[in-house]
Amino acid sequence: MIWLGLLLLIVVAAFVTSGIGPLEISYKTILQLWLSPLHPAWASGVDDTVRYIVIHVRLARIVLALEVGGALALAGAVYQGVLLNPLADPFTLGVSTGAAFGASLAIIAGVGGIHLLGISALPAAAFAGALTALYLVYLLGRMDGRIHVTTLVLAGIIVSTFLSACISLIKSLNEDSVSTIVFWIMGSLSGKSWTHVLLVLPYLVLGGGVIFWYVRELDLLSLGDIQAQHLGVDVQRMRFFLLLASSLITAAAVAVSGVIGFVGLVVPHLVRLAIGPQHRRLLPAVALLGGLLVLVSDTIARSLLATGEELPVGVVTAILGGPFFCYLLLHRKKYLQL
Questions:
Q1: Using CA atoms, how far apart are residues 83 and 154, in angstroms rounded to an integer?
Q2: Which of 152, 235, 237, 263 is the one with CA 20 to 30 A from 194?
């Protein structure tokens, strides 16, 4: 039932936000354009400029926001379950910081503006940085040929801290690129198109498919390694596949949106409050609510300032998610237990 409610909220929010922007477009026109694939004659009298803005600018950005938010929230839920850490999110293993470092290198090298097949080199550099960070975490996290949760988390913190220092060094050495790097690190969906939507989609489908395929094992891993082994789970293998899948969708999301914080941390806890910890029910609701949160945050970011300038999406998600998580941490500590 909660899934149906979230889907309805997403449809309503997408329709409402598609009418928000510098160019005023009636909701009747928007509805005609949305339904035009079913009956092309309904949108026959719509101006081409309006058609382009509604379909190729606003709707593409809405779909991308849903993809990015769903990916980050889904990855956060998996991290919390696999690492047995209620404070885990896509930053835990340094994946987001790795993506930011890769993008920063591309910006300072002057290749961020290069386009191939309509895609900027910036997402490719961010994706490569995210996967490189994950590889380094696995190298540091192995002890006696095995991956332990504690050492993996510590390795993630080490790699993330080191890469953050490298980003600060890059900014200090190239002051001309500071504003671009900072804005990208804080997250933005500005200027994105259907090409970016299609760029994220295969990774989201692949990584999400692996996660949902092993949803039972994820429930068992949440009980702890010993209990999971007694119930027949290959702990090392399952942990590797689940972490790899969640890191893959995180890298793809961050590569096109920049670093958007708090989504993967707050959303799983909020959904867990409503429907409990069983991942078969939890994960779809988490993905839907994460997409809704980023969609609302992006709309606020692009429409809040009267001057027409955009705020970073990460700032809005932090403002919305930070106080809520502080409330959970101070007053409902029992809900932070997985």
A1: 11
A2: 263
**Domain ranges (residues) in the chain:** 2-336
Query: Among candidates 252, 194, 256, which has minimal Cα distance to 61?
Result: 194
Q: pLDDT (tens digit, 9 = 90+) per residue, 271-307?
A: 988 888 888 999 999 999 999 999 999 999 988 887 7
- Residue 260 in contact with residue 294, Cβ under 8 Å? yes
pLDDT of residue 288: 95
Strand 119-120 versus strand 115-116 pairing type? antiparallel
**Cα–Cα distance measured from residue 36 to residue 27, given in angstroms and rounded to the nearest whole number:** 14
301: tokens are 């970011």
Distance between CA 235 and CA 222 in Å, rounded? 11
User: What is the rounded CA–CA span in Å between residue 319 and residue 262?
Assistant: 9
Q: Which H or E run includes 294?
A: helix 279-303
Tell me the fold of 2-336. Answer: ABC transporter involved in vitamin B12 uptake, BtuC (1.10.3470)
